[in-house]
Amino acid sequence: MTRASVVGVGMTEFGVHEKRLAELFADAAFPAFDDAGITGDDVDAFYFGNAMSGLSENDTHLAPKIATHIGIPGVPCQRYEDACATSSNAFKNAVEAVEAGVHDVVLVGGVERCTPETGLDTPEMTRVFASASHREYEQPTGLTFPGVFALLTKRHMHEHGTTEEQLAEVAVKNHYHGSLNPRAHFGKETTVEEVLDGPVVADPFRLMDCCPFSDGASAAIVVSDDLADSYSDPVDVTGVGHGTDCVPISDKEQLSATQAARDAADEAYSQAGVSADEVDFVEVHDCFTGAEVLATEALGLFEDGEGGEAAAEGRTRVDGEVPVNPSGGLKAKGHPIGATGTAQITELVEQIRGEAGERQLDDAEVGLAHNLGGDSATTIVSVMEARA
Amino acid sequence: MTRASVVGVGMTEFGVHEKRLAELFADAAFPAFDDAGITGDDVDAFYFGNAMSGLSENDTHLAPKIATHIGIPGVPCQRYEDACATSSNAFKNAVEAVEAGVHDVVLVGGVERCTPETGLDTPEMTRVFASASHREYEQPTGLTFPGVFALLTKRHMHEHGTTEEQLAEVAVKNHYHGSLNPRAHFGKETTVEEVLDGPVVADPFRLMDCCPFSDGASAAIVVSDDLADSYSDPVDVTGVGHGTDCVPISDKEQLSATQAARDAADEAYSQAGVSADEVDFVEVHDCFTGAEVLATEALGLFEDGEGGEAAAEGRTRVDGEVPVNPSGGLKAKGHPIGATGTAQITELVEQIRGEAGERQLDDAEVGLAHNLGGDSATTIVSVMEARA
After folding, report:
1. What is the ipTM of this complex?
2. Which of A271, B7, B111, B177 gives the lowest tally of CB atoms within 10 Å of its CB?
3. CA dist B361 to A247, B220, B347, B348, Å?
4. With 90 as the cut, is the pLDDT of residue B55 above it?
């Protein structure tokens, strides 16, 4: 069932940007307006995602500031923060709003700066990111996010025999995909040997298992199903599922099978009336290579324990049976936290429309985005399909 | 028209709390569950407000953390941040969600710690709050929020002849109301002389013109209209308006007539089918005495320029023609930022039910809450009425 349609998308290159947050977001929003064939005057509401700019740039109440900057100062604005799932949660709420008839045409998007352009170096930014781990039970131990996902992945290795080589294959694939994407933070390829030779960040992750800190912005124009046909190239949102799990990690029932992703996927598949084997391609939240393995299993693309092997066999490459992260994913495209969710939506739209350039997939009728926040306790899964 | 109903409310005392955020929020959520006659198992979704805890306590992704702590770990969670209008925006979105049938029973609320219990002293917390002013155009000038509202109020004094004595009368009234409210941060009365003798914070505001930094939490259970009659004491939400204005202040068309509040009030009155003179009492966002004067005019309770005189004449006291801030308002009840919006909703519910103790109003059938964020660029106005 169509819940809403996306009729325009835009995103900046992900990488290092000198521009301030509002200017950076404008570089995503204006292309999204142009893509939809609208102006700011047509926008009813603004569902905005930003995760960390209070901490990193002393900048809050950003939604009306940015609305003013991009010329839509009177529309109702709300900022969402759900760690790395921030702009997907804004997207979910926007879909609900147009579906309910609360708004007709909604601007959704996110922006973040995570590089030293903020004035914070990597250790300082790592501390900022760690604000999403549990304040009382995890932060005092020094647990930062490479460690969080290392714990989940180590458990997967223990239970299923997943190997460091298989994890490295995820990095190699996503760097290859990123090399086809002109907006990717990393445009260069890598090799299994290079990944395995890198310095350990948090065992089993080496440097190249980890996504970068990026600056960037992304935006989408969401309209109700009834209005979609009056736009030139709508792509339908047929399912959006939202799963939540316990925080801290020690409260989770299991570590290697992220429950929130399973719940979110079940909900999204059920709404869309599609099964995992009907999905042509996916964008998943590969903040670390191990996270991609866990995600492909949680989404039902592979049996539990087979995600690593599937990656090593090339089944998730752009030319494989289920392309995973054709954009390059967080690993190579980059990860400006609050912008990541709607950047995944942007990739889905461009692939489904056949506008993805060198990385265009042959078969891209049904796409899925998986975006998680924190230790995966928040996960949003969205299914999008070519309009019938 | 009834859009949704509130069937349970809870709040902590506002003041200084040693408890951590999740524990503090639990002290509002559990009383709200009890008041509604539900348990956490009955809750479908969590719309959560917190403004500054990333900056003040290095704590983000709070919604699932708090959901876990209060025993509702599986429900979809979203955090809103819209400066001081944070939990009102969560409330608006919750009302829309139950009205649309997306959820049946929603927990809405907010929590914040703003006192030295966070580890930050008053100058440091003032900088944290200032993150909501414009990052590029206002923060570099040293403008903090006493200065922001001083600018708006000075303009009102210039245009309308509003006096410092009239502003002081707002503080005297709200302290009197607060003295009747056992959950108020300040339980003591004051006098015009005491206010005018205080040290200047930002001309025309003296110390007693300013609300305190408080710790606290508040929560409400929102259900759809069709479900409301199965609860023991529902209060209806008949209108929720959301106005947005430009940021920075220099972009605003006028300073003394807060446009976002006017837009939000128009929308809320129109939805509710009530006019300003049908409102029995209001809770307004009196972060500074001048802000209350501007709010009462923006809501149409008094003609432009007459808000100060009305306060001085006692027309806004609990025994006046339009009681304003019977709770004591931000000025005396306190202002834990992300908790303020749903604390206003709590006061509306308790007054309308006749459960407001010593401060109970004789006539409290129709109540209105006005909650602003930043320099008033975000304003949410909610109208609530006794269920017919």
Report:
1. 0.97
2. A271
3. 43, 21, 11, 11
4. yes
Q: Specify the amino acid at residue B326.
A: P
Nearest-CA distance from A367 to chain B in Å? Answer: 23
- Among B8, B11, B10, residue whose Cα is nearest residue B216: B11
From the list A156, A160, A285, A335, the catalytic residue is A335
For residue A1, is pLDDT > 90? no
Please state whether the peptide bond connecting residue A31 to the residue before it is cis, i.e. omega within 30 degrees of 0.
no
Q: Give the dihedral sign, CA B257/B260/B261/B263.
A: positive
- Of B252, B299, B56, give the one whose Cα is nearest residue B148: B252
Distance CA A300, CA A319 (A): 19
How many Å lie between the alpha carbon of B291 and the closest alpha carbon of chain A? 18
Residue A253 CB neighbour total at 10 angstroms? 8
What SS3 state is found at B387?
Answer: coil
The residues spanned by each domain of chain A are 4-119+211-386
Is residue A114 a contact partner of residue A334, using CB atoms and an 8 Å limit? Answer: no
Q: Which of residues 54-83 of A touch B (CB under 8 A)?
A: 54-55, 57-61, 63-65, 67-68, 73-83
Query: Is B221's pLDDT higher than 90?
Result: yes
pLDDT averaged over chain B?
Answer: 97
Written in H, E and C, the secondary structure of B196-207 is HHCCEEECCEEH
Q: What's the pLDDT at B1?
A: 82
Integer angstrom CA distances of residue B231 from A276, B5, B37, B235: 41, 10, 7, 10
| A384 sits in which H/E element | strand A378-386
**What single letter denotes the amino acid at residue A191?**
T
Residue B32 in tokens: 């709200």
| Alpha helices per DSSP H over B60-121 | 62-69, 86-99
Q: How far apart are CA A4 and CA A228, in angstroms?
A: 8
Per-residue model confidence as pLDDT tens digits over B276-323: 999 999 999 999 999 999 999 999 999 999 999 999 999 999 999 999
Residue A388 reports pLDDT greater than 90: no
Predicted TM-score (pTM) above 0.95:
yes
Q: Looking at the partner chain, which of A52, A65, A377 has a beta carbon nearest the beta carbon of B247?
A: A65
CA angle (B49, B53, A21) in 5-degree steps: 85
Does the distance separating the beta carbons of B59 and A54 come in below 8 Å?
no
Which of B64, B99, B377 shows the shortest C-beta gap to A378? B64
Q: Nearest to residue B283, comparing CAs of B384, B375, B183?
A: B384
Q: What is the structure's pLDDT at A279?
A: 98
The predicted-structure confidence for B150-193, as pLDDT tens digits, reads as follows 999 999 999 999 999 999 999 999 999 999 999 999 999 999 99
Residue A59 CB neighbour total at 10 angstroms: 25
Q: Phi, psi (5° rounding) for residue B211? A: -75, 160
User: What's the DSSP call for residue A27?
Assistant: H
Query: CA-CA distance, A211 to A207, in Å (whole number)?
Result: 9
pLDDT by residue (tens digit) across A222-253? 999 999 999 999 999 999 999 999 999 999 99
Arithmetic mean of pLDDT, B357-363: 97
pLDDT band with cut points at 50, 70 and 90 for residue B129 = very high
CB contact A20 to B (< 8 Å): yes
Is CATH 3.30.450.40 what the domain over B4-119+211-386 is classified as, yes or no? no
Whole-Å CA distances, A377 to A112, A242, B67, B339 = 21, 10, 11, 24
Phi, psi of B373 (to 5 degrees): -125, 145
For residue A238, the surrounding DSSP H or E stretch is strand A235-244
Six-digit token string for A205 = 């992750």
- Burial pattern A314-350, b for ≥16 Cβ within 10 A else e, equals ebbbbeeebbbbbbbbbbbbbbbbbbbbbbbbbbbbb
